[in-house]
């Protein structure tokens, strides 16, 4: 594996909307908080709309811009390609970047299909480049603390994980068919957009999923086309109606290789829940609960506590002793969503300096993709599906 032997990594980012903003902000601010061995340089961003990409470059402080991602990859002053495009472009760009010897950081879900994610993994491995996939919630301090508690045996052997990822932004049947709902662009709906995060957290915290039984559901089957997109949303066309071919919601039962048992629900129809990414894990000696809407808080329960004061307690994960506790602010001066990206970028920079592939990487993205495909297959066949059969 060949990392980087200079003190800076020059980034070329393809795409510049919501995730482009989150990644740009992390490149800007991670060096402020962390003592990074390699500094990310916002060298060039790329987008098809010249006016749009130019103004994004100016606003987010990128040194230059391109309108053709192939040109960006050809540039000798670019070391790493960051892919924040819609999902249907990930494979093509990542593979071309790896073949050109560029390191790759890609948005989730890694790909549209298992064939794509397999080719992406092969490309980064064959070309010895560093690679990461953006499962950013792993890097919330509370999630890192949960991981440490489980690894240290604080809750004993894990029996259950129950994970929910609840949003409500497409409940209106007149909400248009934006790219996150268009099958040829996104691959799947709540499954790849939301459940992908929960499944990754489950692997990170509990272990490998062995089998799944699942059902996908689409509540609104026709939607207006997009007349003009803006952010996650857009203006609906008054005349053009389209078929919705992706899921609005998904429910999964999962068994883990280590004997744990899990349930997952992801939906964009859970009224009142804007971005409620949550899980509860129950072990033989205790339980852990987290919800991204209270990002800094971890709820914990221990069976060994004195029975007279047993119950869940809330840890504010901002102390110096906590993961990233020394990086940010004093106790209870909370951090936010964007810091999960800072923390991931810090891992990426360390990986580049050490010539080691950090996690989550394309292998994690590929296993995640296999799980998404197994879930789809289970919903179609009404049968349990093994994850290994898809890897
Ligand atoms: C939209 O549903 C979205 O932005 C996802 O694409 C992200 O991955 C998730 O973190 C928040 O919601």
How would you describe this protein?
This protein has 391 residues and is α/β, with parallel strands linked by helices. The protein has two domains: 130 residues, Rossmann fold, CATH 3.40.50.720; 207 residues, Dihydrodipicolinate Reductase, domain 2. It is 32% helix and 28% strand. The protein is built from ten helices and 17 strands. The strands form three sheets. Strands 16-15-14-13-7-12-11-8-17 form a nine-stranded mixed sheet. A six-stranded parallel sheet has the order 3-2-1-4-5-6, with helices on both faces. Strand 2, helix 2 and strand 3 form a beta-alpha-beta unit. Helix 5 runs antiparallel to helix 10. The longest helix has 20 residues. The chain is globular and about 65 Å long. The model has no long low-confidence stretch (mean pLDDT 97). Bound molecules: alpha-L-sorbopyranose. Alpha-L-sorbopyranose binds next to loops.
Condensed summary:
By secondary structure, the chain is an alpha/beta fold.
Features:
391 residues; alpha/beta; Rossmann fold; 9-stranded mixed β-sheet; 17 strands; 28% strand
Strand and helix map with partners:
Elements: E1 8-14, H1 18-33, E2 39-46, H2 50-60, E3 64-66, H3 69-74, E4 80-83, H4 90-99, E5 103-106, H5 114-126, E6 131-133, H6 141-151, E7 158-166, H7 183-186, H8 190-205, E8 209-217, E9 222-230, E10 233-243, E11 249-256, E12 261-267, E13 276-283, E14 286-291, E15 297-302, E16 313-316, H9 337-354, H10 362-381, E17 385-386
Parallel strand pairs: 1-2, 1-4, 2-3, 4-5, 5-6, 7-12
Antiparallel strand pairs: 7-13, 8-11, 8-17, 9-10, 11-12, 13-14, 14-15, 15-16
The protein binds alpha-L-sorbopyranose (SOE).
